[in-house]
Design brief:
The protein has about 80 residues and is an all-alpha fold. It contains three helices and no strands.
């Protein structure tokens, strides 16, 4: 495990100590949990970005103009 030194304003440090105490934890544990969540969010973003790319490749062959012409679209809207 790596140690990290963090500087923060007194009021932020105090609030972090209070929050940690409320949760029966330490400030170090709170910071570690937050840093893990950043890593997890980045991994989730990368997963969704890859999924989006795969879906867009499938959509590449789609052309709306081949589906409904303008008159049909207006005819449907009038109903």
């Amino acid at each position: 495990m790596t140690n990290i030194t963090v500087s923060s304003p007194d009021d932020v440090s105090r609030a972090a100590r209070v929050r940690a105490a409320e949760q029966g934890s330490s400030v170090s544990a709170l910071v570690a949990k937050y840093l893990r969540s950043l890593s997890e969010r980045e991994a989730e973003f990368a997963r969704r970005e890859a999924q989006q790319g795969r879906i867009q490749e499938q959509i590449d062959r789609f052309s709306a103009r081949n589906r409904v012409d303008r008159e049909e679209l207006h005819r449907r809207a009038v109903r």
